[in-house]
Amino acid sequence: MSGRENVDVLVIGGGPGGTPAALALARAGKRVMLVESGRGLGGTCLFEGCIPSKIFRETAARRREISRAGDFGLRMASREAPEVDWAAVQARRHKILSARAQGALMRAQAMPTLEVVFGHARLTGPREALVELSDTQRRVGFSHAILATGSVPNRLPLPGASLPGVLDSEQLIEIGFVPDSLALIGGGPIGIEMAQIFAMLGSRVTVLEAQERILTPVDAVLAGRLLERLAADGIAVHTNVGITAIEGTMDQHTVRFEKEGEANEITADVVAIVAGRHPNVAGLGLEATAVAYDRNGVRVDETLQTDESGIYATGDLVGHPMFAHWATAQGLAVARYLLGHQADYPEPRFNSAVIFSYPELGMAGLTDEAARSEGMDVDVAEYDYREDARAQIGAGASGLLRIVYRRNDLRVVGIHALVEGAADLMGEAALAIRTGVTLPQLASAIHPHPTLTESFGLAAGAALTSESV
Ligand SMILES: Cc1cc2nc3c(=O)[nH]c(=O)nc-3n(C[C@H](O)[C@H](O)[C@H](O)COP(=O)(O)OP(=O)(O)OC[C@H]3O[C@@H](n4cnc5c(N)ncnc54)[C@H](O)[C@@H]3O)c2cc1C
Description:
Layout: E1 5-12, H1 19-27, E2 32-36, H2 43-47, H3 50-67, H4 86-109, E3 114-118, E4 120-125, E5 128-132, E6 137-147, E7 151-153, E8 166-168, H5 169-173, E9 181-185, H6 189-201, E10 204-208, H7 220-232, E11 236-238, E12 241-249, E13 252-259, E14 262-268, E15 270-273, E16 277-279, E17 293-294, E18 297-298, E19 311-313, H8 324-338, E20 352-355, E21 361-365, H9 368-373, E22 378-384, H10 389-393, E23 400-406, E24 412-418, H11 426-434, H12 439-444, H13 454-465
Parallel strand pairs: 1-2, 1-6, 2-3, 6-19, 8-15, 9-10, 9-15, 10-11
Antiparallel strand pairs: 4-5, 5-6, 7-16, 12-13, 13-14, 17-18, 20-21, 21-24, 22-23, 23-24
Helix pairs in contact: 1-8, 3-4, 3-6
The chain binds flavin-adenine dinucleotide.
């Protein structure tokens, strides 16, 4: 090991919570070291999360749409859905991932004051870390550090949870075949996305959820509509279940569970535990500092500073919400703060997110339930996508839009949409909520025809002319 090197900012973790912050700091001339212990820059989002799951969804949704070509006046030689070449799907995933990781590395390497180090970083004191590389170690002193080591999948303390063939979400991404049957333990965003992906690829899918309903924090009406869709597509969903054991061999498993006091079981070739994630503090050396944490995440103040002054934390490491764009917004806020600028810290009530279900479920701001629990007097303007021109033309002529607004000043505080294409509606939704747009403003904005975004104006306009407003 050579002597101690010094940097202005040490960033630990090259995912969405770390890399954009490191780039922003280096762009402003700070000496930054960005340490990443994984396969490249991109984090869980690139290698095991957002991007690979959406690559799979793209294939699965296209397969589904092709099998409905007849609805669009396209005669097919056979009514059968196309055969899945899973090796080609996985090869496509690898190609996109490595191109994106390479692009991120090239952007970072173009910064003269940023050094990217592929190794494992461990704090050895409040202003010092040890970076372990494959063949050497480097001792690094820093003025500030940003911890962005993300999260890891929850393992359930269940008999059989470690059997071969019982996977977590990261192993499910790597799977080498489309299983005939798949049991997913967990009905949150990852569980529901994976359920529909594999069902559209031809698997028989069962979802087992411990809570009363799937997608708990999501708008309850839309989650209910999506549940109907899952049932119509043959996905079995059991809620309120307590899993008691997983048994079986590599390629045939039985999942035993209790529901309403009765013992039940289902069988599946592959079982995946997709029951949430927890912050990744293992091996980070927090014990050498005053940084405090628990199972929910590292404790931070309103500037995202930990209990150790000068050490900040961002992204999944801080706990929920766990989204890539949220992690990036936090990282950039910390970077701006360290550069002495006004930092705009992300606030949960302005967040937006998409569950890439089929159809997509987009959400921005508060649900009516959350708004009421905060003491707001709110109403909901609804719009049924069955009436929508764009939805009728495309494949998504079902679903619902729900706009949550305050009754006293008509300010929009939440927009939730279940429709194929909802993902790309959420930009306008997030902007409307962030800037305090009212129903009359949303109604008078001129939305192009025929597009899904018209639904915002139509829903707002209808609510304004109804007796209740
Ligand atoms: C299946 C799945 C689908 C998802 N889909 C979406 C989606 O569609 N949209 C969305 O917004 N979010 C999605 N997410 C969540 C998203 O991936 C995370 O919220 C996001 O990656 C968090 O970013 P982060 O930078 O905090 O952590 P991470 O992306 O986990 O990055 C942390 C990095 O730190 C590195 N690291 C850890 N410890 C050390 C150490 N000691 N030294 C050096 N490096 C270290 C890790 O190797 C990793 O690269 C999904 C997640 C999963 C699992």
